[in-house]
């Protein structure tokens, strides 16, 4: 019969605590967070390992994703289940393989395999892509992406575990080499200068209100966005967030936005819940410098629980400022979409979100981390506009060069 002794329980508990602290912004802990778990799994029989991995993933999932309770209980529970399944698969596949191949090789490969599977079915939104926690790793992150960073993190944890178990100096030497590379990438990313070729402004309305209230007060909300935009830079791009205006707009309302675009000689992009004959879409209107509606992007990967219809066309816009891509809400979790924009010639990306359900939680900053990852792994400028924050301008190295925090109304610029 399997009995979990106190020492083994402490190993699991330490990993759970480390993972939870990571979601509070202590991202550097990801480099050691797996070590106690791997120490526990070392030489364990199959049944013992299964029980341990379930305990770890259950406890860490419950604590890590509490911010989702602000949104929906069923989402919180679903993410915990997916988190547990991920680590169960990781253990089940690696268990037999590590009998023939060293776990230092097996664990990173198996982790990558399951991560790719999750990403292909759009399930990598629950922090299994460890690159989210280490975005400042240019230039290597551009070549190995968040997937490769995840492998690097698992490998580093495996080497530390191997050193503690086997006391081999060779492991220590490799650890030191990896540390030098990691620190070099961090300083490189943090000190790269990036000069924008056009002016950027982001308006953050900060309306943590119900949909009904926002529909009834669309005129006053529009007036506030117009007022914020009056303080924006001219001759560039001005971005409002996802669902900045709720419901179909009148000709008069569209005219006010169009007029301001001409006056500012700027592209204005704003989010809208567009209702068409076949249903409701999560839309982004693109108004060019002449005040003409150049395009309306309908999200092709809308949030699956909001009964929003899927668009059919990629949001790749050919503008006076160059080609750019639009990403709305849930789409920022999808690596392949950002990468597709980059391959199709996008010079910058516009991210639009409405994260009011996460207000006051650590989920707000975790969302920002995902945008930073997309910037770094594609080596591309990201303009991130949200309703209640965090809105940010992110350079191609993943560094935030300007931001508006949670629950603040205002506008930020790059100059």
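-> sequence recovered:
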């Amino acid at each position: 019969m399997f009995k979990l002794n106190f020492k083994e329980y402490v190993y699991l508990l330490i990993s759970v605590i480390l993972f939870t602290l990571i979601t509070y912004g202590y991202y550097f802990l990801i480099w050691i967070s797996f070590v106690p778990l791997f120490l526990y799994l070392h030489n364990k029989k199959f049944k013992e390992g299964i029980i341990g991995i379930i305990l770890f993933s259950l406890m860490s999932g419950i604590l890590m994703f509490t911010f989702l309770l602000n949104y929906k209980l069923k989402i919180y529970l679903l993410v915990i289940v997916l988190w547990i399944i991920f680590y169960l698969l990781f253990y089940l596949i690696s268990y037999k393989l590590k009998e023939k191949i060293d776990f230092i090789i097996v664990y990173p490969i198996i982790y990558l395999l399951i991560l790719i599977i999750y990403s292909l079915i759009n399930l990598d939104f629950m922090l299994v892509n460890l690159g989210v926690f280490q975005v400042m790793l240019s230039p290597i992150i551009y070549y190995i992406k968040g997937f490769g960073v995840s492998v690097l993190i698992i490998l580093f944890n495996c080497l530390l575990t191997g050193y503690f178990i086997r006391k081999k100096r060779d492991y220590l030497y490799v650890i030191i080499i990896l540390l030098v590379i990691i620190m070099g990438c961090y300083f490189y990313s943090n000190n790269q200068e990036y000069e924008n070729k056009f002016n950027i402004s982001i308006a953050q309305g900060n309306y943590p209100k119900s949909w009904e209230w926002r529909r009834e007060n669309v005129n006053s909300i529009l007036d506030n966005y117009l007022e914020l935009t009056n303080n924006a830079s001219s001759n560039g791009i001005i971005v409002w967030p996802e669902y900045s205006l709720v419901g179909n707009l009148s000709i008069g309302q569209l005219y006010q936005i169009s007029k301001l675009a001409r006056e500012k000689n700027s592209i204005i992009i704003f989010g809208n819940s567009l209702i068409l004959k076949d249903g409701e879409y999560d839309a982004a209107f693109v108004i060019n410098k002449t005040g003409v509606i150049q395009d309306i992007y309908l999200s092709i990967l809308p949030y699956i629980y909001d009964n929003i219809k899927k668009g059919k066309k990629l949001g790749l816009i050919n503008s006076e400022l160059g080609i750019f891509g639009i990403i709305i809400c849930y789409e920022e979790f999808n690596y392949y979409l950002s990468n597709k924009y980059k391959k199709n010639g996008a010079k910058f990306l516009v991210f639009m979100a409405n994260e009011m359900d996460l207000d006051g939680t650590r989920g707000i900053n975790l969302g920002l981390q995902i945008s930073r990852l997309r910037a770094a792994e594609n080596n591309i400028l990201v303009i991130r506009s949200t309703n209640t924050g965090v809105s940010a301008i992110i350079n191609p190295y993943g560094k935030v060069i300007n931001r508006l925090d949670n629950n603040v109304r205002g506008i930020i610029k790059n100059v």
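The mean pLDDT is 94.
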